[in-house]
Design a protein that fits this description.
0% of the residues lie in helices and 57% in strands. It contains no helices and 33 strands. The radius of gyration is 19 Å and the shape is globular.
């Protein structure tokens, strides 16, 4: 059965009860989720919102969520949440104690999976993206959590139960518990590694700040990087090794308070590669080679920046893809250095593109979302990589990718791809 993959999207049912997602053609071993609080494809829409989650069963699931109000307000209202009993969640933008949806994971099914709202029906038919992986090329898949070391140096995480081929780290810099309703400050971090190469993107919006204090980071030298005030780094780590019962990271910047991270670990007779590319800045097809195999699933990251490292404005984009008709992208931006106390509105926006893998908008201005600058779609999986097409192009953006492909009979493979 090899590696089975399917990316797509569905609209939440606005009532309590199970909702089955069908048509995948196989029973998944793990499903990843994305959400941005839109009910249809949309360009810049008021309020920044990002949600990411994963599940392998009804008892193994985790999610993070970050949001910031705008542009109808003149005060920064930014929060984040992390949950270890849900596969995806959304707290109402600007309201710590209310929700738009909380999704339980019910089951993996022969032709898809089943979810169900927890406690409260979704407030609208929000569009949710997913990436499902299955087939007998996957022998192990799990989610978990750990607390960061409080000093620099190596930290080994054990209890995973196997040596991962692919690892995704995610978090919101939470220092209380991974099961936390919501706290001030919009932290959102997602990184991945194949054990040698790594990439991550992250954003931060300081709550109740004037002027606004927002930042972003995309890098190939770290697997996790949480930001803080004035484009600072709160904590960050790089991958050291994949181990027999987990993995080891090295904290190059540590925080004196232990903070919770979630992880997704996958193993099997499959090929995995993490790498990067720089968009050409021009329209037309662009091919990425050197992956070492023909992929059939990917997760992509951008942050609206052309160079690696921390810079101003909280911009981010994440997407899933399995073929030219199965992809889903969400993103947003939150503008830095606005004097909201002097009457300027917060410029925070989100967007969804269920038929694209790349979307980048200029920072908002005057209470309106910025113009489309970069838009790209998937074209093909190639023998040594993949091809995508830019229909709108203004910037040579950095883009990280995590790709999966079927393994070879009788051996487990993890193929590594170098970075810039």
């Amino acid at each position: 059965m090899a590696l089975k993959t399917k990316a797509g999207s569905f609209s939440l049912v606005t009532s309590l009860g199970n909702q089955s997602i069908t048509g995948l053609g196989f029973q998944p071993e793990i499903v990843l989720f994305l959400g941005s609080l839109t009910t249809a494809d949309a360009g810049p829409t008021g309020d920044f919102h990002m949600a990411f989650g994963a599940a392998t069963s009804s008892s193994d699931r985790r999610t993070i969520n970050a949001n910031s109000r705008g542009p109808s307000v003149q005060v920064v209202d930014a929060i984040r949440a992390c949950r270890n009993v849900l596969c995806l969640t959304s707290y109402q933008i600007g309201y710590v104690n209310d929700i738009d949806y909380m999704l339980n994971f019910v089951s993996m099914d022969a032709d898809g999976f089943t979810i169900a709202p927890n406690w409260k029906a979704p407030t609208a038919a929000y569009l949710i993206g997913y990436l499902a992986l299955g087939g007998n090329d996957i022998s192990n898949a799990t989610t978990g959590q750990f607390t960061s070391a409080v000093s620099t140096g190596n930290q080994s995480v054990t209890g995973v139960g196997f040596q991962p081929d692919a690892l995704i780290l995610f978090g919101t810099a939470e220092d209380t518990n991974f099961e936390t309703a919501a706290n001030d400050g919009a932290y959102f971090i997602v990184g991945f590694t194949d054990g040698t190469n790594q990439g991550q993107t992250s954003i931060y919006t300081k709550n109740a700040s004037d002027p606004t204090d927002t930042s972003r980071n995309i890098t190939s030298s770290k697997v996790y990087s949480a930001l803080t005030n004035n484009q600072g780094i709160l904590q960050e780590c790089s991958i050291v090794s994949m181990d027999a019962d987990g993995f080891t990271v090295n904290w190059t910047t540590a925080n004196g308070t232990a903070r919770y991270l979630g992880y997704i670990a996958i193993k099997g007779n499959l090929r995995v590669a993490v790498g990067n590319t720089a968009l050409s800045g021009s329209t037309g097809n662009q091919s990425v080679s050197g992956v070492g195999f023909k992929p059939n699933a990917a997760m992509f990251q951008i942050n609206g920046h052309t160079v690696e490292g921390v810079t101003t404005h909280g911009e981010i984009g994440l997407s899933f893809c399995t073929d030219s008709s199965s992809r889903f992208e969400i993103g947003g931006n939150d503008r830095d250095a606005l004097n909201v106390g002097l009457g300027t509105v917060v410029e925070a926006y989100r967007h969804t593109q269920s038929g694209k893998i790349i979307a980048n908008y200029a920072a908002g201005s005057g209470g309106s979302g910025g113009a489309l600058q970069d838009l790209g779609d998937f074209v093909s999986w190639d023998a040594d990589g993949f091809t995508y097409n830019m229909s709108t192009a203004s910037n040579a953006l950095k883009m990280n990718y995590l790709v999966f492909g079927s393994g070879m009979m009788g051996q487990t493979l993890s193929t590594n791809r170098g970075f810039w």
